[in-house]
Here is the input.
Amino acid sequence: MFRNLKSAKPYLLALAILIGIGAEVGRAEAAEKLVVAGGCFWCVEADFEKVPGVTKVVSGFTGGSVANPTYKQVVAGGTGHLEAVEITYNPSQVSFEQLVHLFFRSIDPTDAGGQFCDRGESYTTAIFVSNTAEQQIAEAAKAQAMATLGKQIVTPIRAKTRFYRADSYHQDYYKQTKTVLTRFGPSSKATAYKRYRKACGRDARVKALWGSESAFAGS
Here is the structure.
């Protein structure tokens, strides 16, 4: 077809680009999303970014009626929004069911007033579903969690609504090196996050509640 390799190079390059684009489209089509609220979104983001098959976790807000809410608006209350994360995952590597199972075991689903040291509506828990199949899976996982704990689970299964991404300050907070001022003095965001997580008692409570089934404790 080609007289020499040199004349073939432009065509081979174009073919490689098309193959690459096709692969990217295939990966994008395979990706699915789960939105959950589990208290501080820094912590939930840090937890689920460690799960094999999860490709991206974004911190944000959902569940309320106020469009384009700010962080200050949400934590002040009255917007109806919860701090939440949007988890993008590859279903060929990790399932919706597995993620929901892990989610229950990374929170205190018996607490209706918030999570750990963070109190108020914006820090309450929820799983947001897109269809009947997801609803059924989430309800089954909730029933299993209730049977394991022998306690009432208050985490609701809610219909998915628009997810609003939080500003860049809150994304991947747990691994940022930028210096911030805290009650302990200046420190990196990553260090501030570790101190906050420990002081808030998140891991201690999850371990006490779930025991050997606890997920992510110590992240």
Residues 12-16 have pLDDT under 50 and may be disordered. The CA atoms of residues 174 and 191 lie 8 Å apart. Residues 29-167 form a domain with the Peptide Methionine Sulfoxide Reductase; Chain A fold (CATH 3.30.1060.10). The chain has seven helices and ten strands.
